[in-house]
Amino acid sequence: MLEGSVNFSNSKAGEILCKVSMSASEAKVQKIPLMIGEIGKSVETVIELTNPSNTVAVIESSLTNNENFEVIPPRFEIAP
């Protein structure tokens, strides 16, 4: 369990500080099938992602080998 706080300010009502207790469960591991392609050609795969929260999730890709691999698009949003 993680604890944090949220601070609300209003010129008439003043400042309100709320303590928040948060918890999350670990996401399930999703294994991507092995992708094999010939040299000089490309291979694609579709990965289904879901967003169980009630807010838009912004996803950014991170690669360790940008020379040989690419994620298209590199940044996208998943609706709630």
Layout of strands and helices, then pairs:
Layout: E1 2-10, E2 14-22, E3 57-60, E4 75-78
Antiparallel strand pairs: 1-2, 3-4
Key features?
80 residues, two-stranded antiparallel ribbon, mainly beta, single chain
Q: How many E-type strands?
A: 4
What helical percentage do the residues reach?
under 10%
H/E topology pattern = EEEE
Shape: elongated
| Classification by helices and strands | mainly beta
**Rg from alpha-carbon coordinates:** 20 Å
Largest sheet: 2 strands, antiparallel
Enumerate the strands of the largest sheet in spatial order, edge to edge or round the barrel.
Answer: 1-2
N→C terminal distance: 24 Å
Low-confidence stretches: none
Structure write-up:
The structure is a single chain. The protein has a domain at 46-80. The radius of gyration is 20 Å and the shape is elongated. Strands 1-2 form a two-stranded antiparallel ribbon. A two-stranded antiparallel sheet has the order 3-4. The protein has strands spanning 2-10, 14-22, 57-60, 75-78. The mean pLDDT is 86. By secondary structure, it is mainly beta.
